[in-house]
Amino acid sequence: MTTYRKAGPADVPTIFKLISHYAAERVMLARTLEELYSSVREFTVAVEKSRVVACGSLKFYDGRVAEIRSLSVEQGHTSRGLGRGLVKRLLREAKSLGLETVFALTTVPEFFRTCGFRETAREKFPAKIQRDCLSCELYPACPEKTVAIRVGKPKPRAYARPLIEEVPALRSA
Ligand SMILES: CC(C)(COP(=O)(O)OP(=O)(O)OC[C@H]1O[C@@H](n2cnc3c(N)ncnc32)[C@H](O)[C@@H]1OP(=O)(O)O)[C@@H](O)C(=O)NCCC(=O)NCCS
Questions:
Q1: Domain membership of residue 98 as a residue range
Q2: Domain assignment of residue 166, yes or no
Q3: Disulfide-capable partner of 151 in 38, 88, 95, 125 (CB 3.0 to 4.6 Å)?
Q4: Whose CA is closest to atom 31 on ligand 1?
Q5: What is the mean pLDDT of each run of 10 residues along the chain (173 residues)?
């Protein structure tokens, strides 16, 4: 049986191992132990037989937008619904916190499509480009696609035009 829960500091070494494995294959960004300890509250983990076998995190950019990062399912546990189980919980968390949109940069847009996301332009998330992409050696010829989903109603904005438009809505589960 698989259970899901928010991660704690004791999970960090396992999360580090999961992410490092896929970072070595260049399918996701590496994270240091220090980064993981300081952001561990952003993570949700999947547990089987008391062991963490998958993880994913929700990084907040502002009161409206968050990113799913570091989504990793241990080899040998893939294709059993754990990835989708994590995404579903991270989206629920985003919705319950009043966010509007969740996005991800990914080499597997097909997987995210099965979770309700749609491909969109990375330029809709300038804070992401600023924070991570500009310092990345692969940018702008990056192989990752940007996918996004709307999880809540757009909030009124005082000045600017909506930053994000035309992203699909989260279907209530
Ligand atoms: C991508 C990943 C998170 C998917 O998790 P998973 O537990 O294997 O996927 P699930 O079993 O939840 O699959 C859900 C659906 O997505 C599809 N899917 C899963 N991986 C896929 C892939 N690589 N390509 C296309 N479709 C995929 C499944 O077929 C399934 O579709 P279905 O419901 O129509 O049968 C996992 O394989 C992984 O950790 N990969 C390496 C790291 C990575 O690429 N992470 C994403 C970076 S943002």
A1: 2-150
A2: no
A3: 95
A4: 114
A5: 98 98 92 98 97 98 96 97 98 97 97 98 94 89 94 75 63 59
Q: From 20, 59, 79, give the residue whose CB has the most ligand 1 atoms within 8 Å, as the site to mutate.
A: 79
* Distance (Å) from CA 81 to ligand 1 centroid: 8
User: What is the count of structural domains for the chain?
Assistant: 1
Query: What span, in angstroms and rounded, lies between the C-alpha atoms of 16 and 74?
Result: 12
CATH number of the domain encompassing residue 28: 3.40.630.30
Amino acid at 129: I
- 86 within 8 A of 71, measured Cβ to Cβ: yes
Instruction: Give domain status of residue 173, yes or no.
Output: no
Cα 79 to ligand 1 centroid, rounded to whole Å: 6
pTM of whole model > 0.85?
Answer: yes
**Alpha-carbon gap, residue 137 to 73, rounded angstroms:** 26
